[in-house]
Amino acid sequence: MPRPAPVEDPDAGFTLVEVLVSLAVITVVLTSVSTFLVRSMVMTNLEGVRQAATQVASTAMEELRSVPGNQAPTWLTANAAMATVPVGTHTYTRTWTGDWNTPGSVLIAATVHVTWTSRDCPSNLCEYSDTTLISTVGAEPTFDLAGP
After folding, report:
1. Residue 69 included in any domain
2. Does residue 130 belong to any structural domain of this protein?
3. 70 compared with 7, residue with greater pLDDT
4. How do residues 75-100 score in pLDDT, each as one tens digit?
5. What is the CATH number of the domain that holds 64?
6. pTM for the model
7. Which of 22, 29, 95, 148 is deepest in the core (most CB within 10 A)?
8. Contacts from 47-54 at CB under 8 Å and sequence distance 24+?
9. How many independent structural domains does the chain possess?
10. For residue range 130-144, what is the model confidence (pLDDT) as tens digits?
């Protein structure tokens, strides 16, 4: 006489091996996701700090551009010293370099340098620079659109 087929118990659960394998898979997935999230937060913070440095340099450039061209060398000389600019929890150092002391120059180059400390940069010192040309001529040239 053939043996009857075994009846599966509807209340049977997972075996211990199945539980351990599923826990191992979940651990691997969560570890990789958490690593991604932590690195993402670090990069977001770093980009925020760089954006603030860009804003410090942009503000300095706008201050320079608001000065009449023939007064720009005097303004640059007065503001060339190192200045600290606090933004949030970081402190930025702003300095100016350029060729504004060259007598008779019609165009002068001015560069603003913004530096800050961060372990994410070489030697723990990050830098952002922005350069512009300023005309020192009192009257700017105009163009006659109705001319020949």
Report:
1. yes
2. yes
3. 70
4. 999 998 999 999 988 999 999 998 88
5. 2.20.130.10
6. 0.70
7. 95
8. 49/90, 49/116, 49/118, 49/126, 50/126, 50/128, 52/87, 52/88, 52/90, 52/92, 53/92, 53/114, 53/116, 53/126, 53/128, 54/114, 54/128
9. 1
10. 999 988 876 666 777
